[in-house]
Structure formats: structure tokens, C-alpha cells
Amino acid sequence: MDNFFLLLYVIPISFLFFKLFKIVDQKRHQSCYILDYQCYKPSDDRKLNTEFSGEIMKRNKNLGLNEYKFLLKAIVSSGIGEQTYAPRMVFLGREICPPYEDGISEMDEFFVDSIDKVLTRSNVSPSEIDVLVLNVSMLSSVPSLGARIINRYKTREDIKVYNLTGMGCSASLISINIIENIFKTRKNLNALVVASESLTPNWYPGNDRSMILANCLFRSGGCAILLTNKLSLQHRAMFKLKCLVRTHHGSRDEAYGCCMQKEDEQGRIGFYLGKTLPKAATRAFIDNLKEISPKILPLQELLRFTIASFRRRMSQNPSKTGGGIPVINLKTGVDHFCIHTGGKAVIDGIGQSLSLSEYDLEPSRMTLHRFGNTSASSLWYVLGYTEAKERLKKGDKVFMISFGAGFKCNSCLWEVMRDLGDRNAWDDCIDSYPPGTLANPFMEKYGWINNEDPSTFKLPG
């Protein structure tokens, strides 16, 4: 009889421990780790210096003096230097009507360089890749670009492939989110994220100011990221994903229409950047920050901010409660910031909103100066700069935030798994950064345009 009652206790307790073990084991296998990443550095013959930028503008017969003045002001204040890269078709003089093959070749150059390097460095063969997520927003091919990668690297037949288009500059974090969700349902997987943008079919040859601005900001680049949820590879991991939050304001007409690919009045396709873009970005950023802050900040900072906000709302004279609007202090839970290099104004705005120091903003500013806005891969060049400067130590937290057409704001937090110091795409120049000045020579070279008379203006050469 005693043995019978003992069994009544042992069986449910054993079952409880078994279920608990299954839950813990499942959680352990759901972790998302980065094994390695590689940013793309095109060849030096694709560098877009001041002299050649002027030649490109001269080739555009649709531009007048007012457009030249606008472009000069935009590029001088952009924060972009002379070391950025343009697609090869620009150097071949084919930007007005590039052939389809130019866009494919642009992507192939990136694939061969970055994917080869990330697989070789991590000692992972193509046959070990279980999931491929590729995002190139503005170039669609048949077969898909994902299929081109599969054909080149001869991956397994059961590989799961996802091709993302139209996601814009925030696409790489969307790709990471897809991988994260897949990792929650299956164990022992390796995944490859490939993020880039094809500028070849999207170089705007017209004179609409809201569309020629994109030519000033966007540059060639890309990144390949190898991720895993295998516990056996945990000791080799560089980063562990702590949380990821996506915010989408596409239901708001103003946000939806502020950033899109479209035709101008003459039917020329380009990328439109509207005047409502800063407002849309601010609203999306605030909503995203509201959701991710409780997930990444210590309790005492959340309490401080809540109390300060409550006191301000209750006070009839807010100026007596401690000055301006309370600001959440992200630096209580974050050590490093990777801000999307959408432009100098974007970096300045986020820095001011979050009370970040110049040290915090340095990786984003230097990335904008050296590589420009490389769309979905920009965040990884910023991360590469931080690593190349040997700032990433085990246990540090890295916060990424990006914006994209739609309009979207996506952010995530990574934990550094070991001390890092690889130079990645920054290898040839990191020792010269930050430079003494970020001023580019465009005003010195072309400032005379501002003194020209529209009635007599004639572009030399």
C-alpha cells in the first residue's frame, strides 16, 4: 500500500520535472546567435570622389542652375566623404538607361565577395546552411537572387529560402526577425542573411529635387550574416539576440507616402524622399522606443522615467519640476549604438532625442562618411566600425535602430559573447578614423555655382 501511495507522488512529480526540462531545453535551442558577418567593400575603381561626382552631374542634361545649387547644398551637408562606392554602370556612363545585366552583375560581385568570406571564416560549408533570407528591395529577377546564390553555392535541396523586396533600409532586421522565429520552432539550424541594395536600375536621371536627393545619399554596399541556434556552436558566437521590435506605420497615409519608388512627371523612375519623412520617422521611432525600452532597460530607470513623466503631467508649472520633457536614458541598458546612416540629420536627430554623446554617435557618423547610406546593410558597417575600434567587450549590449519605407522603424539589442576586434571592411582605413574634419571638398570645388546668374549660366566643359 505504501508503495502505491509513493507512486502517486513520484509519477506526477517526475512528469512535472520532465515538462520543466523540456521547456528549459526548448528555450536553450531557441537562442539566436551570430557566428560571423562580413561587410562588402567594393574595389577602389568604384570610389565616387568629388571630381567624378561633378562629371556625373554634367552628364545629366536635365539639370539647371537651381538643381546644381540644390545638389551642392545637399552633398555638402550630407556628411558623406570621398571614399564611398557607386555601381559600376555609373563609371561606364550607362546610368541613364542601364541594361538589366548591370544590376545582376552588381549583386553577383557582392555575393561572391561577402558570402565566400563569411563561410570561409566561420568554417561552415554551403551544405550546412538550412535557411537563406535575402533582401534586395529594388531589384527583382527570375530566377530570384536567392536562387542565384543557391545555384552558385550548390546548397541542399531542402534549404528554406525567403526573398524580401520593397522593405527598404530596415530590411536586415526584418530578415533577422524571420530567422529568430524559425529558430523558435526548429533546433540545430544554420541561417544566412544577405542584405544589400541594387542602385543600378534606380539611379535617377531627372531633375525632381525630391528624387535626385537619393543620388546624393545612397551608395553601394552589402552584408552577409551567418546565424545559428546550435548549442554546440555557442562558444564560437559573436553576438546573442536579446530582443527585437518592429513598428509599422503603413496604415497612415502620410507615413506610407513619404518614402517610395515612383515616376516623375516625365515618366523617369526614381526614389522619392518627401518633406514629411522626418515627421514620419520621429513618430515611428517614438512608438518603437515605447515598446522596446521596457525589454532592455533596468527597472530603476523605468521607474525614474515614469515618476518624472507623472510629475510633469500633474504639475501646473512643468518648468518647476526639473526643466524640459523627461528623456529615457537608454545608456543605462545599452553600451553601444548602431544608428541607421540615413543621413546626417537622422543621426543628429536620434542623438539629440536620446541625449547621446559624440562618442556614442561616432560609429554612425564615420560609417556615413566612409560608406554612405548602403540601405539595409548600413547597420552592419556601423557595427563593424565599433568592432574595428576594439570597443566590443564580452557582456556589452549593442542597440541597433533602423528606418525603412512603408514606413517602418525596427530595433534590436545584441549581447556581445566574447571580446571582439576584427577589422572587417574597415581594415584599410580604421587607423585614420575619426578624421580631423568630416567636411568634404564639394564646396571648395563647386562653390562658384552659388554666385552664378541663371540668365547667363553655362556649365563649363
Automatic annotation (TrEMBL):
Active site annotation, chain numbering: 169, 248, 336, 340, 369, 373
One Gene Ontology term of the molecular function aspect: fatty acid elongase activity
Keyword NADP part of the UniProt annotation: no
Beta-ketoacyl-[acyl-carrier-protein] synthase III C-terminal domain segment(s): 334-415
Segments crossing the lipid bilayer: 6-24, 161-179
Listed GO CC annotations: membrane
CDD domains found in the cross-reference section: CHS_like (cd00831)
Official protein name in the record: 3-ketoacyl-CoA synthase
